[in-house]
Specification:
Layout (H helix, E strand, L loop, with lengths): L2 E6 L10 H12 L4 E6 L17 E4 L2 E4 L1 H11 L13 H30 L2 H15 L3 H4 L3 H11 L1 H7 L12 H16 L10 H15 L11
Parallel strand pairs: 1-2
Antiparallel strand pairs: 1-3, 3-4
Helix pairs in contact: 1-2, 1-8, 3-6, 3-8
The structure holds glutathione.
Length: 232
């Protein structure tokens, strides 16, 4: 049976840019599960109301409806134990959870500072007002002011990436020789930036860029082939 996933889309329905949806699409592909993605925009709350909340990803697997990317990853691992393991082992979920906390607590905020003003440029007209108002209220500044200190923000991002850099210069993936869900969590964040913003945030000689390239190429270039924001 084909699973269905609601996936955050820009004005261009093929441009998908949510970090949480990207990590989930990589997880589904890792588990060799066929998924139909449904483009969803911020203001289309009604379309996912059946999930009891207003955020994506939402996964529908037959009668089951699961939301929250971590819940989805754990569901996939438990419901499809005969498929390739996402975490490596049950014990490894703790390590992946640590990476999730680091990514959402440190990496996402560093990326927001760099790309938030670019995100507005790719949104559908229906989402513009909602996005700007909700984010400016949460950040306490206009999106442009919040992201004004570009050089400083980039330096901060590179500092945040230090533990990843020191790790992936010695190992192919956080999962070891093979990628695991921890890789997909961090990949999702960098792919969010890559799809939503034309800025090049990583130096070519950064081991993080090489690791990201390895992930972009996985699964017949699932990440590499994804439509991205064009420079304007
Ligand atoms: N904890 C959730 C977070 C999901 C989330 O925040 N998704 C964003 C898209 S990146 C969303 O749907 N936002 C809706 C909104 O801001 O109204 C997860 O891990 O799935």
């Amino acid at each position: 049976m084909i699973l269905r996933m609601y996936d955050l889309a820009a004005a261009d329905p093929l441009l998908r840019f949510s970090p949480y949806c990207w990590r989930t699409k990589m997880a589904l592909t890792h588990k060799v599960l066929a998924v139909e993605t449904v483009p969803w925009r911020f203001t289309e709350k009604q379309a996912i109301a059946f999930s009891g909340q207003g955020r994506v990803p939402v996964l529908v697997d037959g009668e089951k409806v699961i939301h929250d990317s971590w819940e989805i990853a754990c569901y996939l691992e438990d419901a499809y134990p005969d498929r390739p393991a996402l975490f490596g082992s049950v014990d490894a979920r703790g390590g992946a959870l640590f990476i999730k906390r680091w990514a959402e607590g440190q990496l996402h905020p560093a990326l927001v500072r760099l790309i938030i003003a670019d995100i507005v440029k790719i949104l559908h007209a229906d989402d513009l007002g909602y996005f700007r108002e909700s984010r400016e209220a949460a950040l306490g500044a206009t999106l442009e002011d919040y992201s004004a200190a570009k050089a400083e923000n980039l330096k901060h991002l590179h500092a945040v990436l230090t533990p990843l850099r020191l790790t992936v210069k010695d190992v192919a993936f956080l999962g070891g020789d093979e990628p695991a869900y921890a890789d997909y969590i961090v990949f999702g964040a960098l792919q969010w930036a890559r799809c939503a913003s034309p800025q090049n945030l990583l130096d070519d000689d950064d081991p993080v860029a090489a690791w990201f390239g390895r992930l972009l190429d996985l699964y017949d270039g699932l990440g590499a082939k994804a439509p991205c924001a064009a420079a304007v």
